[in-house]
Amino acid sequence: MTLTPALTRHLNNPELFSDLTSMRSLGQPSVSRTFQVFNPSTGELLAELPDMGVAETKEAIDKAYVAQAEWAAMTARARSDVLWRWHQLIVDHTDDLGAILTAEMGKPLAEAKSEVSHAAAYLQWYAEEANRIYGETISAPSTDRRMLVIKQPIGVVGTITPWNFPASMVARKISPALAAGCAIVLKPAEQTPLVAGAMFALAEKAGFPEGVLNLVYAAEGDAVGHELCTNTKVRKISFTGSTEVGRLLMRQCADQIKKVSLELGGNAPFIVFDDADIDAAVDGAIQAKFRNAGQTCVSANRLYVQAGVHDEFAEKFAARVATLTVGDGFTPDVAIGPLIDTRALAKIEHHIGDALAKGGTIRCGGARIDRDGTFFQPTVLTDISSSMRVAQEETFGPLAPIIRFEDADQVVREANDTIYGLAAYFYASNLKRVWRVAEALEYGMVGINTGRMSSEAAPFGGMKQSGIGREGSRHGLEDYLEMKYLCMGGI
């Protein structure tokens, strides 16, 4: 691993950073191929990493397979203690981990530190949950037998994490697996692998046995993903990313009937009813739409506003959006960082162009920012119809289209008219409406009068083609456990 001053100059303690990113004792093989990681705000080279492939992935799987038995055999308390130590190390190094995250992903430093804290919260939660893996006894039909249920770790888990939350997604995926007694092979996104490397180095300091945690760096994920899906020593795949890639991984796992957890695309509606607190709804929409420059799977993608309050909301919302500052994440008071790459810029421009050609109106923003980096003005569109791409596809950028609607039945019908079902939001005061709309929306998570709802204590996941399984909460632990029925005769 070769690091550059463009990265280390942002750290409080470059010597500590060098130690944090040392992978010498994690058993990673030496490879001649390398790939580079860049800062999307400046285009500066941050690091050069080993470009691993199938051979290195197999080696990592073999190490995890050997380590699995020892880790699973440890007491729940012992596993919990290691997770607790890792949690504390993450907390202790929040500033440097946040700086690494901002450098490679671009989000504002305060937001990056908040993400690191969120990652630590998952480690804390599952350090506690490790001690609460319970079985059950069943009343037997005869007196000469006993019937029991125990839960055991599923085995080696292959995980693939996305670029948009490169710290919290690592923790959210692997902390329940580790608590359950599983060993891990992780492939982080090629755009943002550095914070994962630093977190794994801290995990080594926390005392995980060798081989329990294995990191595979790769510039292209296809070969690594295929090996994880088809290798018989891997018992489960956990992936966060696009629905298209999720379908591919699911097909590759099918021959082995391999278990999968998939957190995939979203097309989140954000609904404002005429009895809503409009100022609160504006605040919530800012949070739900522009956090991480709109590059989140739960980002509000379609803003539906009832006709009676449409104009008031659009005016107040556009005025607020126009004040959001855009720039390098290390600059104080910046609210929005860059998009991850030029393809993201092209997609948002395509969506705006399509909307304008079909009658849409720009209320603010609408263009790239003329400076180094992949920056785009936060944008609000009105006069949006369901025929526009921006109403049908996930933009994944700082673009907010506002759609006028008349009644609750209509908006619920339109909100549900998508293959996705990850997150939805709505603002309303009438309790009868709140209950009916919340139950009618076909989404795994619904925010009611709030624009943020993620928590380590709550189940995160979607319906329909937004995924399979849940992450976070006590339910997230179950995805890494096998249920075994024991019938004892001759008692």
From TrEMBL:
Q: Does the keyword Oxidoreductase apply?
A: yes
Q: Which Gene3D superfamilies match?
A: Aldehyde Dehydrogenase, Chain A, domain 1, Aldehyde Dehydrogenase, Chain A, domain 2
Q: Keyword Ligase: yes or no? A: no
Indicate the segments annotated as coiled coil, or none if absent: none
Keyword tags: Oxidoreductase
EC number(s) per entry: 1.2.1.16, 1.2.1.20, 1.2.1.79
What are the residue boundaries of the Aldehyde dehydrogenase domain, all occurrences included?
32-485
The similarity annotation says:
Belongs to the aldehyde dehydrogenase family.
**Protein name per the record:** Succinate-semialdehyde dehydrogenase/glutarate-semialdehyde dehydrogenase
